[in-house]
Amino acid sequence: MRISYAWLRDYLKLDIPADELAEKIERTAVEVDGVIRPSEGLKKVVVGDVLECVPHPDSDHLHICQVDVGEDDPIQIVCGAPNVAAGEKVIVALPNSWIGNHTKIKRSKMRGVVSNGMLCALDELGFDEKLVPKEVADGIFILPAEAKPGEPVFSYIGMDDEIIDMSVTPNRGDMLSMNGTAHELAAIYDQAPTMPTVDLHEDASELADDELNVTVQADEQAVPMYKMRLIKNVTIKPSPLWLQIRIWNAGMRPINNVVDATNYILMQYGQPLHAFDFNSLTKGQVNVRFAKAGEQLTTLDGEERELAATDLVICSDDRPICLAGTMGGLDSEVTDKTTAIALESAIFDAVKIRKTAHNHNLHSEASMRYERGIDHSATETALDAAAALIAKLSDGTVTTGVVVGRDEDVQPVVVKISLSRINHVLGTDLSLDTVAAIFRRLDFPTTIDGDTYTVTVPARRWDIHIPADLIEEVARLYGYDNLPSTLPTGQPTIGRLNETQQIIRDSRKLMESAGLTQAISYSLTTEAKAKAFALHASEVTKLDFPMSSERSALRLNLISGLLDDLAYNNARKEHDVALYEEGRVFFSQPEQVRPKEVEHIAGAITGSMVQTAWDTAATPVDFYQIKGIVAGYLKSLALAAPVSYVATTAHPEMHPGRTADIYVGEDLVGFVGEIHPATAKAYKVRETYVFELDLDALIAQPKEHQQYQTISKFPSITRDVAMLIDDQVTNAAIVKLIKDKGGAHLRKVQLFDVYNGKNVPAGKKSLAYTLTYQDQNGTLVDEEINKAFEKVLTALTETLGAEIR
């Protein structure tokens, strides 16, 4: 909401700097984004009087103008605007002046003719092109006839004003109007605001009811109030300059006198209005109803829209002519041929308008105010004010009476609260009179009985309903910075991370120590990517109003986001990338109201993790390297149950021969492996290895207590064993058997040779292991080790059918 300081002075006696006023608003009411000074940075821009305008001899569109700028002699300026003419007052940028976008104007020649400056359009002074009136959009701006040549131009076009740009919170919709803001500032500075009055003159010879018939078919919750007036004999023309200045300084574009009048009243009262061309209505019939699914309406922006059953529409003889509270229809638009106006002022349900604005992506000044609330007591007043202004600006007449489709009995809210309660909540010691004065400044009629206030809250402050709201008002106006500050009492606690937070933080450190870089991906993705790489079966949670088709569903995995990151890097010639991400995925079942959020950790590696050097060759990452990272990470968690890796083909996005599910005991906690070549092609990445782990499941697993153990002082003994064994027997099964039968002193089992070629029978492979034995408390002897070793050999032969070599 842009508030004109000059307009504010119509309400209040303010002589403080705009920056100070903005700071006061921010500390007391709502956030302020800044103070805008339209003329800031502009220099030597003055009023000019075009004395002579002749065509340029070497151009079919340029003109040579002699312009009076208040100096002894006129200056010559070459201008290409189609609307420049002798006798017009114009905006002149003198030589060495500064205009919009920090542009300096110098003397120059145009087609051989000297030009001592420039005749300016509004956008060349820094105006947003969307705010420039259409009639001067392609030319220079023409100033009023009373403008004096040589004077600075800023006061004539409102650029000497200061604009306070407020970011109004949803609970303070009353400040989306000049009246509401004036009431707030009057309370802050303890002034009585001068509020606008309505001077409406009706034509007693014509009754609005005779020509305009309004019915409301929608329920009372959707449309609590709907009223119209009829203005006849109007002449559509540009608005006077004072009104255009008020409109564009508020951030809106001047259109014509009728539309500008409705926008002016919108800014003044906060009440959206809409003007219909009365002659476009069928026999003066207006009805308000919900749309029929599939109905069509072409709105003022030229877009044909398919309506939903939840949309409120204004109809004429059941033909949609306006999307209620959002945007009018093109068929009933006010044009230069309009001679009569049907003016609407209404209250629509905030939820209905919000849904319509979202569904059609139509967020207008009107819909913004309906979504945040409207002063129900000012609806008819705003209607009368707009009708009076339209009649004045268009030389029209207002027919007698308001046509009421539905009315509402608007009553103020009465709230009781005690002084002791206010002081208890705020920690203050305010007196009865101090609080009563605050309610008086707010213009809330109040009676006092003992220490209890009975406060009557006017309808313009619809955000106040309960005692807590009044306490907030007292705190705001008393000043948050005046509230006493106290230290908390009680035994302080030592801040620390809980177990889950500590494991998550340690997980990040471990991944980074393994050579992976942290990535943060979007939680929102496409439905296809959300389903991919899912660790558990789940429904996909879809957004009702996604920002884009690429962000329409909540993710079920982290890998798809990491693959997008790899693709981004690969496209920029970065082929050696190792990333990890710790974040949440969202599992959902049909009966769940909201998805379950689960912490996961995942990694993705492509290329090589070892940089090429004079003595080192780059080695592409493989399954065993990424499995080693996962194994090291799981070992750091000190899980009580054993970790096992089981080959799987259950993940269609993964390579069927290079993927393993990861179990802790009997619980599936993740998977690791290479992505399928088809998946790599779809994501536009090279050969990539990934893992994903359910971090919540790992945190919930029982943990072993890690204890310090000294390094043994005694020597170790090793034994090697080589065997022929069936191809189907896995290394994991062999190692498990050796550890089970190896005895108490077996410390390590290391595979050091694998052979499957010449002199090895078909269906067999040759494996060789080193077994390391060591005692913590003494020196081992060969006899003891030999007995343990023989048990291992026997078990390998009898259990796995191994042939010892």
From TrEMBL:
Names of required cofactors: Mg(2+)
Pfam families in UniProt: B3_4, B5, FDX-ACB, tRNA_bind, tRNA_synthFbeta
Positions that bind Mg(2+): D463, D469, E472, E473
Chain ranges of the TRNA-binding domain: 39-154
Signal peptide region: none
Subcellular location field: Cytoplasm
Predominant location category: cytoplasm
FDX-ACB domain location: 712-805
Enzyme Commission code(s) on record: 6.1.1.20
Enzymatic reactions: tRNA(Phe) + L-phenylalanine + ATP = L-phenylalanyl-tRNA(Phe) + AMP + diphosphate + H(+)
Tree of life domain: Bacteria
Domain (B5) ranges: 410-485
Molecular-function annotations in GO: phenylalanine-tRNA ligase activity
UniProt keywords, alphabetically: Aminoacyl-tRNA synthetase, ATP-binding, Cytoplasm, Ligase, Magnesium, Metal-binding, Nucleotide-binding, Protein biosynthesis, RNA-binding, tRNA-binding
Enzyme class: ligase
Co-factor note (free text): Binds 2 magnesium ions per tetramer.
Oligomeric form and interacting partners: Tetramer of two alpha and two beta subunits.
Family: Belongs to the phenylalanyl-tRNA synthetase beta subunit family. Type 1 subfamily.
Protein name: Phenylalanine--tRNA ligase beta subunit
Organism of provenance: Lactiplantibacillus nangangensis
